[in-house]
């Protein structure tokens, strides 16, 4: 399955993105520990472990969430068609991600030092919501590019060789 050059390039890009997110996570944890002593004094170390676990889960979620769009984008590109894909699903997800990301941004504190800490705190969820929103724009572009007029669609459905739902093992 990794025979395709574009698929290999995608995998390399994905590894770079995941590595970059891990570096950002480490930087966030270091900066957070430095800023934490000046903003809030805490003496309970278990709270820090719980928070760190939350950040790790947030970044893992971000990676999976961003990765969820690539198989559909690639499949649409491969087939040069969005047939069988529900645009309403992507439109509603876009609206949800937009409002979720905006809710995080609009809750930002007014003071500059707290804004930086707030952004670092919410970075995985901001990247997840706005990143997926960005990828859904590409799905929208695919819907526009691959749109077939109604009379042409009927003839293409009969000519489709590959079924829309194929298990990955047989593909």
TrEMBL record:
<comment type="function">
    <text>Amino acid transporter that specifically mediates the pH-dependent export of the cationic amino acids arginine, histidine and lysine from lysosomes.</text>
</comment>
<keyword id="KW-0029">Amino-acid transport</keyword>
<keyword id="KW-0472">Membrane</keyword>
<dbReference type="InterPro" id="IPR006603">
    <property type="entry name" value="PQ-loop_rpt"/>
</dbReference>
<dbReference type="GO" id="GO:0005765">
    <property type="term" value="C:lysosomal membrane"/>
</dbReference>
<keyword id="KW-0813">Transport</keyword>
<feature type="transmembrane region" description="Helical">
    <location>
        <begin position="126"/>
        <end position="146"/>
    </location>
</feature>
<keyword id="KW-1133">Transmembrane helix</keyword>
<dbReference type="InterPro" id="IPR051415">
    <property type="entry name" value="LAAT-1"/>
</dbReference>
<dbReference type="Pfam" id="PF04193">
    <property type="entry name" value="PQ-loop"/>
</dbReference>
<comment type="similarity">
    <text>Belongs to the laat-1 family.</text>
</comment>
<feature type="transmembrane region" description="Helical">
    <location>
        <begin position="46"/>
        <end position="66"/>
    </location>
</feature>
<keyword id="KW-0812">Transmembrane</keyword>
<protein>
    <recommendedName>
        <fullName>Lysosomal amino acid transporter 1 homolog</fullName>
    </recommendedName>
</protein>
<feature type="transmembrane region" description="Helical">
    <location>
        <begin position="12"/>
        <end position="31"/>
    </location>
</feature>
<dbReference type="GO" id="GO:0015189">
    <property type="term" value="F:L-lysine transmembrane transporter activity"/>
</dbReference>
<keyword id="KW-0677">Repeat</keyword>
<keyword id="KW-0325">Glycoprotein</keyword>
<keyword id="KW-0458">Lysosome</keyword>
<feature type="transmembrane region" description="Helical">
    <location>
        <begin position="87"/>
        <end position="106"/>
    </location>
</feature>
